[in-house]
Every structure is written in structure tokens, then in C-alpha cells.
Design a protein that fits this description.
Distance between the termini: 26 Å
Number of strands: 22
Strand content: 15-25%
Largest sheet: 11 strands, mixed
Radius of gyration: 31 Å
Length: 594
């Protein structure tokens, strides 16, 4: 249980207590006589509860009887610090609350979050989906933005100094229970559907789609598994996928799934989500969805899934795909013709219409693009790959390493090998191993024809669309594909999503919901303040503006008990507030409600 170690939370240690060497204060809250187990007489039992910690652990508490109180102290001694705290639904006891509000409260951030939620319609969708719990979700999302953290143990201390949406300061134990038991997956799914319809709007909408992983140490949770993390595949993780509106980076929907599932296998669930949305005739008439995804999602199942769902898609094909190689080899010379030059991008491009798979019933459009600036980078990368292969072959010859046929094939991408059979090797996993012929490499020479073919493919990219689009339209749509990566960077860098600190799967889903809401609010604030960053990118980043808003505070009049803003807004605060549509009157209204 969090204990606020602040001057406002200092109280006198009551009588009838015991104090541990570490300074924790325990109160005997009840005592009764019970029969001894051996039947010989009665004994007295006591129930103890921790009510706080001494201000100076290790010193004589009987001389200095000051301590920092916790929620139990205020409950046991019936100190009314918050009339709206209510009672626990299970026990009927008053909910743990913390001391009364600080004498100085930040109000600017609440005004900005309130306006942002109203402007994008988030407040209404939250209220429709979660009813009275919508305010708590907004509070937790605002805490994430303000503190750049998702560690809710510190929320009570933060709330004492901030204006918030719900009726009382929630303890960390309340938040833990809220994450675990209060919000259901059905409510979250309802919210995601309503928000997606709201945020998609109408017309043709490009949606960028990708996934990321978050580390988790939770035990016994189905969704936490070892997966395909780039940094450390041995870490247990949860994968999260986001769909983001391409034009402005607004998050549309999200989903958690087990850490062991790769990108290609997870896509059908997202396709099914959009397919369900498009079953609504009004939505289907109003919006055309085109999903932009990277190479990891290219599969026959996914492409057919997009088509069957009535969703368009733009996919970048892998360079080593047979389709990519075939298209580049047969069209490289024609693509580089002057008539295919695109002045807007400095690239050359042409479009070819053909089937993606042998059994395809419909055609796809393939946009073959040559970028002269990319060609140099590709050639350098190719040179490194050729040199690396040469060194591996030389090392095998020097050490007389034995290889099987498959390994020889991988080593001979750019070189012709001379080798002879020499004994056998066991290959395969233990218990399922098999014996195959072994070979020793005697010599090698460059395969100039193959190397030249790879050189000719440098600088080329191939994009596939399931809807008819020009190369220019496709590249324009792809130009902001990194919006989903920016969303992940914001979540992990400024909202604390680098690790999920929960123990239960239900808590994981609730926390992911709060992250999603925080990312929506952050996106609104970022987009509505874009013009400020044209002249000053450093002062008007979202974290910097959050600090400016946090510094708009109100002080308590100790005689009247009312709060009043001491200072007028600074120029920077006023500029940010105006961009977000927040007026000084709205800030003063929040102060009046404290």
C-alpha cells in the first residue's frame, strides 16, 4: 500500500500501537478471548493493521511521535477526507482514500485533456461503453501522459496535486482491482467497435497496420509467451497490434495476442475486425478502407482475406520473393526509361497488372519502383553480403568443416563451389536426427552471372495493391506509413508501454485500453499543435507542452477553502491553450469545481 511521505500527510502516532525496526506502525484493531487448542483455559488474540510509517525509521518513535499515514489510518479513525469515495462493492467497507487535496493543484492538463476528448468525440464513446468508469479511464490516461509512466503505484500522490475527472483520489489498491475486475473484455470490444466507426470517418481511408511486443514477467498468464522479439527472443512478451489512420496518426483500434504468434499469423484477426465493421451497410457505403502493411504480413491467406472482407491493401513485397525477382528481372530496363520518371519523388516507376498466386481469381496491381538514391545503399549492402559469404567459405576450407547439401546450397549464393563427399553428418533435432552425406569444400570461384543479376536488382522496390491505383498514388499513401511506428515510439517512450507490469490477463487488457486512450489523446494534442512546431520544434513537443500545462496551477485560500489561480498564463501557455481550443474561462471553471 502506497504511503504518501509529504508534510500534509504527517499525523501523530496514536496509542495502542507497535512499531517495527523499519518504522512501520501497527495498530491493534481488535482483540478477543479464544479457547486454547489443548483445552486448558483461554488466550487473548489480536488483529493488527499497518496504519503508516514513522517519519524517521530507526529513531525513538516514543520521543518523536510523527508518522506518515496510509489509507488504513484514515479509514480506522473515520477521518472524512473524501465524501465521494464510496464503499467497496465486496466488503461494504469505505474505499481507501488519501488525505485531502494539496494546497496547490495543477489544472491546465485536465483542461487540455477534456477539450481533446471532446474535440475527437472520445468522451462520448467512453461514456457509452464504460458509463461511470469512463472518468477513471480518462484519469489514468492523463496520468500516463503527465508522468510518462504506466506505474500506477504513484497515481495517488500525483492525483493529490492535479485536477482529475473522477470523484475521488484512488489508491493503488483500488486501481489494481479496477484493472483486474472492473472492466470487462466485452466492454473493451464494444468501445473498439464504436471508436473505429467514429474515427474512420467517410471516404477513402488509408490505415497503417503493424505490431510491437511488450515485455512481461507475469506467470501463468496464457497470453504471455516467448516470441519473436528483436532485442531478446528469450524474454516473455505480449504482442500488441495497432491500426492507425494514415493522414494524421490517429489510432483506430488495437488488439493483444500471445507473444509466440508472428505477424503473418495475427493479421486474420484484424481483417475480421474490419470485415465485421463493414457488415453495417451505412459504414460500408460511407468508407473505403485500404490497409497499408509491411513485408511481414504478405501471405496468400492474408491477401485473400483482405479481398473477401472488402478491404483494399497495399503491401511491400520482400526482395527475395519469387514474384519480386521475376517482376524486377523482366521489367528493370523498361522501368528506367525517361517516360516513367516521377518528378515529385525523383524515382522511376511503372505498374503491371497480373495475378499474385497461380490460383488467384482476381488480378493485383504491382508497382515496380527504381530509386537511384537507394541503389547505392543496396549495392554497398550487396558487397558486404558477398564478402561475408567469401570469408565463411575460406574459413570452412581452412578448418576442413564438413557440410550437408542444404548448407552448401546456402553458402553458394554468389560462388561456385568445388567439393567432395567425405563421411556422414547427423542432422535434425535430438530424437529425430537422420544421417546424411557430408561434404568438404576444396575450392571456389565467383559466380559473376549471379552477382550481376543481384547488382541489376539494386534500387528496386515492388509494391502490391489489391485495388487499382497508380504508382504515384501508392507511394503517396506509403509516404506516411511510419505513422504506426511513431505511435509505438510514443507508447514505449512517453507512455510507459515498454513493459506490462500486471499479474492477470484481465488487468493486461484494461491497461492496454488505457494506453490506447492515452495514445488517442496524445495524437489529438500533437495534431492540433502542429503549427507551433514550424518555428520551434523543441519547445512545443508533446512532453514539453504537457509540462507547460502542468504549470497552470491554483492555490487554496486557507480561510475560505476555495482555490484561485494565482498567475495569468504565460505566453507559451496561452499559445498552447489557444491551439487546443482551451480558454482561460474553461480553466477557471475547472478551478471553481475543485
Amino acid at each position: 500500500m502506497t504511503i504518501l511521505k509529504t508534510p500534509e500527510n504527517t499525523v501523530t502516532i496514536p496509542t495502542g500501537v507497535s512499531v517495527t525496526p523499519k518504522g512501520y506502525v501497527y495498530l491493534n484493531t481488535s482483540s478477543k478471548w479464544v479457547a486454547r487448542a489443548d483445552g486448558n483455559g483461554m488466550l487473548s488474540t489480536h488483529k493488527k493493521e499497518c496504519i503508516g510509517v514513522h517519519v524517521s525509521p530507526g529513531t525513538d518513535w516514543k520521543t518523536d511521535r510523527r508518522m506518515y499515514a496510509n489509507a488504513n489510518y484514515y479509514r480506522i479513525f473515520e477521518i472524512k477526507t473524501d465524501e465521494n469515495a464510496g464503499k467497496d462493492e465486496k466488503t461494504g467497507r469505505p474505499l481507501p482514500v488519501y488525505p485531502s487535496r494539496s494546497d496547490n493543484i495543477s489544472v491546465g492538463l485536465k483542461a487540455a485533456i477534456k477539450k481533446a476528448a471532446e474535440n475527437c468525440g472520445l468522451d462520448a464513446v467512453l461514456a457509452e461503453s464504460f458509463e461511470e468508469d469512463a472518468d477513471t479511464i480518462l484519469d489514468l490516461a492523463m496520468y500516463m501522459i503527465s508522468e510518462e509512466s504506466a506505474v500506477f503505484q504513484h497515481y495517488p500522490h500525483w492525483a493529490r496535486n492535479h485536477a482529475f475527472f473522477s470523484g475521488s483520489i484512488r489508491s493503488d489498491s483500488f486501481i489494481s482491482g479496477f484493472e483486474k475486475d472492473k472492466i470487462t473484455l466485452s466492454q473493451i470490444n464494444l468501445f473498439k467497435k464504436k471508436w473505429a466507426v467514429k474515427s474512420l470517418g467517410d471516404g477513402r481511408v488509408f490505415v497503417c497496420y503493424d505490431s510491437t511486443n511488450e515485455n512481461s514477467s507475469a506467470k501463468g498468464v496464457f497470453i504471455v509467451e516467448k516470441g519473436h522479439a528483436k532485442d531478446d527472443p528469450g524474454i516473455n512478451q505480449v504482442n500488441t497490434e495497432y491500426a492507425v489512420r494514415q493522414k494524421d496518426g490517429m489510432p483506430i483500434t488495437f488488439r493483444n495476442f500471445p507473444g509466440s504468434i508472428n505477424d503473418m499469423a495475427e493479421a486474420p484477426e484484424m481483417i475480421a475486425f474490419f470485415e465485421e465493421l463493414l457488415k453495417d451497410e451505412e459504414v460500408k457505403k460511407a468508407v473505403t478502407i485500404i490497409v497499408i502493411a509491411d513485408r511481414g504480413y504478405v501471405s496468400e491467406e492474408n491477401i485473400k482475406g483482405f479481398r473477401n472482407a472488402g478491404i483494399g491493401c497495399i503491401l511491400m513485397l520482400k526482395k527475395n520473393m519469387n514474384m519480386t525477382v521475376s517482376l524486377v528481372d523482366s521489367n528493370a530496363g523498361q522501368v528506367k526509361r525517361l517516360e516513367n520518371y516521377l518528378p515529385s519523388s525523383g524515382r522511376f516507376a511503372m505498374t503491371v497488372k497480373r495475378k499474385m498466386f497461380n490460383d488467384d481469381e482476381k488480378d493485383s496491381w504491382f508497382h515496380i519502383v527504381w530509386d537511384p538514391s537507394l541503389e547505392e545503399a543496396d549495392r554497398n549492402e550487396l558487397a558486404k553480403e558477398i564478402e561475408g559469404e567469401r570469408r565463411r567459405i575460406e574459413k570452412d576450407i581452412e578448418r576442413k568443416t564438413l557440410r550437408n547439401k542444404d548448407e552448401l546450397k546456402r553458402l553458394s549464393k554468389f560462388f561456385r563451389l568445388e567439393f567432395h563427399e567425405e563421411g556422414t553428418l547427423d542432422v535434425g533435432a535430438r530424437g529425430n536426427a537422420r544421417t546424411v552425406p557430408a561434404y568438404a569444400i576444396d575450392g571456389f570461384e565467383r559466380n559473376e552471372e549471379e552477382i550481376e543479376r543481384h547488382h541489376a536488382r539494386c534500387g528496386f522496390m515492388v509494391f502490391m495493391t489489391t485495388r487499382e491505383m497508380t504508382a504515384v498514388e501508392t507511394m503517396e499513401a506509403l509516404s506516411k506509413r511510419d505513422c504506426v511506428e511513431k505511435a509505438f515510439r510514443a507508447l514505449k517512450g512517453w507512455l510507459g508501454m515498454d513493459s506490462i507490469g500486471v499479474r492477470y490477463e484481465s488487468s493486461m487488457h484494461t491497461k492496454s485500453l488505457v494506453w490506447f486512450v492515452a495514445s488517442i489523446l496524445r495524437s489529438v494534442i500533437f495534431n492540433e499543435t502542429k503549427r507551433l512546431r514550424k518555428n520551434d520544434r523543441k519547445r512545443y513537443t508533446v512532453p514539453a507542452m504537457t509540462r507547460l500545462l502542468d504549470e497552470i496551477t491554483a492555490d487554496k485560500d486557507l480561510e475560505t477553502g476555495k482555490y484561485k489561480r494565482r498567475y495569468r498564463l504565460t505566453k507559451s501557455q496561452r499559445v498552447v491553450a489557444e491551439c487546443l481550443g482551451v480558454t482561460e474561462a474553461e480553466i477557471d471553471k475547472i478551478i471553481a469545481e475543485l
